[in-house]
Design goal:
Elements (H helix, E strand, L loop, with lengths): L1 H25 L5 H13 L3 H5 L4 H6 L2 H15 L2 E9 L21 E9 L3 E11 L2 E11 L6 H12 L6
Antiparallel strand pairs: 1-2, 2-3, 3-4
């Protein structure tokens, strides 16, 4: 009898899991606020793949998943995991280096910038996220990290430089 209950339980779990995966694919696209928040929710769960999937075409073509994953791993090693994030929407204005990632023909009024005050276990830093329309939703077209130089040790500075200065040489 226990085997039968176990098999029914396992079948239910499999059906539920496949249903959730199918449901996730059919959900409407995230709006700009949801996309920005989802990025940090994914990082808080250490789900670098889902966070990376929120990057726009230009940024994801420039930064490979492996580079992004390594960068996020170094941040976790040095600063610990993400504990909290508070946000403010800021008016869009171009930042140095960002212009290469802004899609052509996008109305500047549709580009949104968020500044997140992110508390880690061992640091507190600011993240800028710039989002623009892509397809049916919004994607992150640029992000930057800034804050106290106390936390920007050489290992993190090297990863930031590697992430945005050099195209991925592994592919």
């Amino acid at each position: 009898m226990n085997k039968a209950i176990f098999l029914v339980f396992m079948a239910t779990i499999v059906c539920f899991s496949s249903g959730c995966a199918t449901l996730k694919e059919k959900l409407p696209p995230l709006d700009v606020d949801q996309t920005a928040q989802a990025f940090f929710d994914d990082l808080q769960k250490s789900d670098n793949q889902d966070a990376y999937s929120l990057l726009g075409k230009g940024l994801s073509q420039r930064v490979s998943f492996d580079q992004f994953d390594q960068f996020m791993r170094v941040i976790r090693e040095e600063w610990g995991r993400v504990l909290t994030d508070d946000t403010a929407v800021m008016p869009f204005h171009r930042r140095m280096g960002e212009e290469n990632f802004i899609p052509l023909d996008v109305d500047p009024k549709k580009i949104k910038r968020y500044i997140f005050d992110v508390k880690f276990e061992n640091a507190e830093m600011n993240f800028d996220l710039t989002l623009a329309p892509e397809g049916d939703g919004y994607k992150i077209i640029w992000f930057s990290i800034w804050g106290s130089s106390i936390y920007m040790n050489p290992k993190i500075q090297d990863k930031i430089e590697e992430l945005f200065s050099n195209p991925d040489k592994s592919s």
